[in-house]
Design brief:
By secondary structure, this protein is mostly helical. The protein is built from three helices and no strands.
Amino acid sequence: MSSEEADYRPSYRFLAWYMNRKGYIVGHHHLGDDQPEAVAQQYHAEHTWLHQSRTIPATSADPRKEQHS
């Protein structure tokens, strides 16, 4: 492994190396399996968001609330 690759976290080392070679900036803040608590929190937040009930906005901008005369 080159020193270039060693600069990245092991969980996404080669993907980050490849993306940087393509011109993308990849930081060290991304989720990876080396941070299981953070990954679990993200999955929980996504599950909560996905299964939340849909609510109808109660604003005057809601076209269903407009009265047609």
